[in-house]
Amino acid sequence: MCPERQLFCQKGCGASLRESQLDTHEALDCAHRPVVCPLRCAINCAASTLQRHLQTDCPRRLVSCPNRCGARVPAVELPTHLRNCDHRMVRCGAGSSLCARPLKAWITPQTSLDRCFAHHEHGFMWALKTSDVDTILTFLHRIHKSALDEEFTTGFTPLALACSKGDIPLVRILLLHGADVNLETSRGRTPLGEACLGRHSSTPTATDLQPSASRVKWLMTGSWRCWTNAINSNWYDYSNNTQRRLFVAIATSNYADIETIIAGGEMAYRENHAWHLGRELAASLAALDDIQTQLTDHMNAMNVSIADSEAKQMKVVKILDSVEYNKAQLEHVQKKEAKVEAFRQVTELTVKRA
């Protein structure tokens, strides 16, 4: 076979060249030759599509952060970057979109938390409310430890708020970063108290943590605000035996008995905020049923009235049509009479002349 004969590229690029040049063409010049992505995404593509792959398809291509933080990260890592980007928008603790600002703007140069002017809340509270773990971790890595126990205007600390929600992973994160489990707010809120009031028996502050000396001391000495809350919550309505068991369990740090007493009997319902909300919801539903019944009666009466009005309207329309018809007939008769009268006069005149 002649080495100088003309052949077409076997990879289908359409090039025609001598057989002696075919191997070199397919290895170096052919637009359809397979090439390895230089960004090491482990994808082989044709040389002709390499640029498009690098610009739009490659998972390792560099893309700019949409939050305009200036970072350029591989496309496959962008979701991870967005979860930790300090330029992501975070609302204030009141949830107002008007107070939203980049995450880093909620942190002062002194690594404390800055509050919005309108609601006097900060973005860390909103992250706790929404259980946005990524945002919470970003805050925790940037703020000073003292800001972790800072009280919100609602009377909650971050840990007390997490316990009231029963968010176990969030509680553990806050504890691992040094949140004070014994801290009592100005309104008498404590993490353990919020967990008990919310019937969150599995909250780590009540079961998963080993008793510390400070917590045992706190439980044994007690807090006058806790006792005041207990009295105001009508605990005196319960039997002396139940009260005695509960107070002994608190004083001895017997978490199992605390959970058993709080989770059972009338106490669990009357001391649970959800029970009161349930009663209010039931009353609202009953009132709604009454309103719906009254509305149905009024609608039926209105429909009957509308139907009666429509019937009367149709009757009036028919009467008007009849009047118009009779009026037209009367005009027709009058025209006939005029013609007859004119014919009579002409006839009389003709007879007289004859």
Automatic annotation (TrEMBL):
<dbReference type="GO" id="GO:0008270">
    <property type="term" value="F:zinc ion binding"/>
</dbReference>
<protein>
    <recommendedName>
        <fullName>TRAF-type domain-containing protein</fullName>
    </recommendedName>
</protein>
<dbReference type="InterPro" id="IPR002110">
    <property type="entry name" value="Ankyrin_rpt"/>
</dbReference>
<keyword id="KW-0040">ANK repeat</keyword>
<feature type="zinc finger region" description="TRAF-type">
    <location>
        <begin position="53"/>
        <end position="99"/>
    </location>
</feature>
<dbReference type="InterPro" id="IPR036770">
    <property type="entry name" value="Ankyrin_rpt-contain_sf"/>
</dbReference>
<dbReference type="InterPro" id="IPR013083">
    <property type="entry name" value="Znf_RING/FYVE/PHD"/>
</dbReference>
<dbReference type="GO" id="GO:0043122">
    <property type="term" value="P:regulation of canonical NF-kappaB signal transduction"/>
</dbReference>
<feature type="zinc finger region" description="TRAF-type">
    <location>
        <begin position="2"/>
        <end position="51"/>
    </location>
</feature>
<dbReference type="Pfam" id="PF02176">
    <property type="entry name" value="zf-TRAF"/>
</dbReference>
<dbReference type="Pfam" id="PF12796">
    <property type="entry name" value="Ank_2"/>
</dbReference>
<feature type="repeat" description="ANK">
    <location>
        <begin position="154"/>
        <end position="186"/>
    </location>
</feature>
<feature type="domain" description="TRAF-type">
    <location>
        <begin position="2"/>
        <end position="51"/>
    </location>
</feature>
<keyword id="KW-0863">Zinc-finger</keyword>
<dbReference type="InterPro" id="IPR001293">
    <property type="entry name" value="Znf_TRAF"/>
</dbReference>
<feature type="domain" description="TRAF-type">
    <location>
        <begin position="53"/>
        <end position="99"/>
    </location>
</feature>
<keyword id="KW-0862">Zinc</keyword>
<keyword id="KW-0479">Metal-binding</keyword>
